[in-house]
Amino acid sequence: MIKKLLDDLLDYHIMEKSFTAHSNVLKFRSSYFRRELENIQPNENNIKIIIKSSISAQILMLFFTADEFELEELSNKLETLLIETKGTTTLKN
Fold first, then answer.
1. Which of 59, 53, 65, 52 is nearest to 80 (CA)?
2. Residue 80 domain-assigned?
3. Are 63 and 78 in contact (CB under 8 A)?
4. 49-60, pLDDT tens digit by residue?
5. Which of 3, 55, 72, 91 has its CA 20 to 30 A from that of 12?
6. Percent of the chain at pLDDT above 90?
7. pLDDT for 51-84, tens place per residue?
């Protein structure tokens, strides 16, 4: 019974975050985003959307912040984490 309750509770802790970023900036700054964006067709509004199911919003915000402040080592480690992880964050171009 407790296992079932915990499983049900875990289903409700999924959060979806959406970020808007220019695809050229993402492609230039990250080989991960370059590969992802090259394989996605834009929607009817010419927007490319990347959906990941286990990358936390905090990881993405840290990635963007590390890149903005040119913290190359941190940015590289976060990019590796993005490549190795699957997540529920939506990125819109």
1. 59
2. yes
3. yes
4. 877 666 677 777
5. 91
6. 1
7. 766 667 777 778 778 878 888 888 888 777 777 7
3 state SS of 78: helix
Asked if residue 7 is part of any domain, the answer here is no
Please answer whether residues 20 and 92 qualify as being in contact, where contact means their C-beta atoms are separated by less than 8 angstroms. Answer: yes
Retrieve residue 12's tokens: 């409700």
Give the range of the structural domain holding residue 26, as residue numbers without chain letter: 15-92
Q: How many domains does the chain have?
A: 1
Q: Is 78 part of any domain?
A: yes
**41 domain residue, yes or no:** yes
Beta carbons within 8 Å of 88's beta carbon, 6+ residues apart: 14, 15, 16, 51, 52, 53, 54, 55
According to DSSP, the residues that pair with 52 across neighbouring strands are: 89
